[in-house]
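Agenda item 2: xanthosine-5'-monophosphate complex prediction
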Amino acid sequence: MPRTDIIATMQADIERVLISRRQIAARVGELADQISGRYAQYPEGLVIVSVLAGAMVFLADLIRHLPLRMRIALVGFSSYPGPATEAGDLTCVCPLDIDVERRHVLVVDDILDTGRTLRRVVSDLRRMKPASVRTCVLLRKPGKTEGDFEPDFVGFDIEDVFVVGYGLDYDDQYRNWPDLVVLKPELYGASPAACDRAS
Ligand code: XMP
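Presented output:
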């Protein structure tokens, strides 16, 4: 199938654009300025811990705007087994492989929904005695987060819809779409829970 046809088929899956690539780029720059201001006082730099795989596109853009010394480490959890969008139990599938003791750590994630993932990452990190732990999320769904978890840096507050694109997936697809979008509800046919969240 020609390249333009493939793009057209992906485009046809999209119900609406929630946040455009231009809006994302502008906001990532602003977030980077905030983060640089906060960490400029640490000449030793920071450790960025990012959560696979949804944060990878955001991470790649963000770090290139940060004029700071940094090490980068990745952690991975499986919370959405198979083609579903309901959070299950968190299983660590890629443990942290870096020493963060006495280091300043910034956790970067794609989206704060219930907060279970970030809470788990932060609590695992705190046991490793870092100098500080802060969190940065591209997206937050206000009203969904359990408890009183407050990220230090937030890109956008969004409504409670299931979003894909810019690293976020449905059934491991759409991560490469440059905008943050909402898919057509009929695509979630095999997963009624996703339909609820997308409506
Ligand atoms: P929690 O509930 O732990 O969720 O804060 C964080 C993780 O859940 C995934 N997630 C989403 N993924 N569209 C997605 O593609 C969404 O709307 C969505 N909401 C939550 C995501 O992996 C995130 O790191």
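Discussion summary: Residues 82-87, 192-199 have pLDDT under 50 and may be disordered.
Owner for follow-up: CH.
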